[in-house]
Write a structure and sequence with these properties.
Radius of gyration: 17 Å
Structural class: alpha/beta
Number of helices: 7
Largest sheet: 7 strands, mixed
Helix content: 25-40%
Number of strands: 7
Strand order of the largest sheet: 2-1-3-4-7-6-5
Order of helices and strands: HEHEEHEHEHEEHH
Length: 242
C-alpha cells in the first residue's frame, strides 16, 4: 500500500475550506493551515464534555499514533490534543475521538459544535467503554444523535463497507478481548454503527470498547501475534481520505 499524502491533505483541506464559509450572520470560523513550520498531516483530538467521564483509555492515543507512524507516510503530531467539545477550536481538527462510560448530555455549545463539525465534513469516532448496547453511555449518546440528526440517522454499516479495506483488510469489525471476557452485555458486536453525510461516514460509533483494547504501551505490541491496532489505522485513513 502506498499512501498519497498529497490527496489526504487536500481532502482535509476541503473540510477546512468548508468551515471557513460558516459565516451565517457570524464571523467565519478560523480554519487549519498546515504551515511550513508544522509539517503535520494528522493530529489526534480527544473531545472532553461536561456530563461524563471522557478521560478514559489514556494510553490509547499514543498507541494509535505510533501505528500511524509505523505503517503510513502521514506526518503525525505525536502528542494527543484534548479540546472541550464546547470550544470552537474543535472545529479545526481533522479527526476527533470521544469515549466514556457514563451519561452523555450535551449542553447548548457542545450540541452546536458537534452538529456543525459533523455536517461540514468532520469525522468523530465514538467508542462506548461499557461495550453494552443498553448501558448508560450507549443509551444517552444514541439519544443525543437522534435529537441532533434525526431518529434514523445512526445505522449499522455493512461489513463490506470501505472502512474495512481503507488500509488493512478486515471482514467486518475485529473482535475485542473485552467483548469475550463476560464484561458488559456479554455479546460480540459484529457491526459498527455510523451517521453518514453525503455518502461518507461522519460519526463512527462502536459498542466494542476498542479504546480499551488499544489502551497499552505501544512498546508491548511486540508480544502480540497480530497488532490489534491495525483497525485504528483503517479508521484514521478512512477519515483522512473520505
Amino acid at each position: 500500500f502506498t499512501l498519497n499524502v498529497f490527496s489526504v491533505v487536500m481532502n482535509r483541506r476541503k473540510f477546512m475550506r468548508t468551515l471557513s464559509l460558516l459565516s451565517a450572520g457570524t464571523v467565519a470560523m478560523p480554519f487549519l493551515r498546515l504551515s511550513a513550520q508544522e509539517h503535520i498531516d494528522f493530529f489526534f483530538t480527544r473531545l472532553s464534555y461536561e456530563s461524563g467521564d471522557w478521560e478514559v483509555d489514556e494510553r490509547m492515543p499514543a498507541n494509535v499514533l505510533n501505528s500511524l507512524i509505523e505503517y503510513t507516510s502521514l506526518r503525525v503530531d505525536i502528542k494527543e490534543r484534548i479540546v472541550p467539545l464546547s470550544d470552537p477550536q474543535m472545529l479545526k481538527a481533522p479527526f476527533c475521538y470521544m469515549a466514556g462510560h457514563r451519561l452523555v448530555q450535551f449542553n447548548a455549545e457542545e450540541k452546536q459544535n458537534f452538529q456543525r463539525y459533523v455536517e461540514n465534513g468532520g469525522f468523530v469516532f465514538v467508542d462506548d467503554c461499557n461495550h453494552d448496547i443498553d448501558g448508560m453511555f450507549a443509551r444517552s449518546f444514541e439519544r443525543q444523535m437522534r435529537d441532533i440528526f434525526g431518529e434514523q440517522a445512526l445505522k449499522k454499516i455493512p461489513n463490506d463497507h470501505a472502512i474495512y479495506s481503507s488500509f488493512f483488510n478486515f471482514e467486518g469489525p475485529p473482535r475485542t478481548s473485552t467483548e469475550l471476557n463476560g464484561w458488559g452485555d456479554d455479546l460480540v458486536h459484529n457491526y459498527l454503527k455510523a451517521i453518514e453525510i453525503d455518502g461518507r461516514i461522519a460519526v463512527l460509533y462502536s459498542n466494542k470498547d476498542l479504546g480499551c483494547e488499544w489502551d497499552y504501551d505501544f512498546r508491548n505490541k511486540r508480544w502480540l501475534k497480530v497488532d490489534n491496532t491495525r483497525f485504528a489505522v483503517n479508521i484514521v485513513m478512512y477519515a483522512m481520505n473520505s
